[in-house]
Design goal:
Length: 197
Amino acid sequence: MPITLPDMPYGKKALEPFISARTLEFHHGKHHKAYADNTNKLIDGTDLATTDLESIVKKAAGDPSKAGLFNNAAQVWNHTFYWNCMKPKGGGLPAGDVLQKINSDLGGYEKFVEGFKNAGITQFGSGWAWLILKDGRLEITKSANADTPLAYGSKPVLVADVWEHAYYLDYQNRRPDYLTTFIDKLINWDFVNSCLE
Ligand code: MN
């Protein structure tokens, strides 16, 4: 099978009390796994069977006949990226290159917090809030369902999953509280900085 479900970069209890082990068990063990399994079923026996995941996402993005493959493959990529965007004792004011670029491109950390949270809150239904590098500048954006800036020539550097399955067990309908906690307590800024290199 060419597409594998990666292990998470930390244990299932590592993000408690902010994201519970129960949420991560379902989110990684059921949701993320299902996207990987479905992707493998859809590429089995096709010319994409030995193609890497990023290339599958980009190739399927512009092809309406491959919408099902795009949805599953993009969700595999998005979730792996999302796990890396969090760590225990993360969040808060970043340092390094990302802080400099947040200051120069977004108008400062408070503007980032406001804009990123707003992107997640205003994504109607399921989707993702993103910080991306586009033409060398940081931008905040959002996407619906499985959609991903990876498919359109931007470089993702941070994402928050705002599908209900990401937060409902811990926050019920309080998506703004989940996003505030994500920003204040969970973001792995070292990973974000590594994406800027
Ligand atoms: Mn998810």
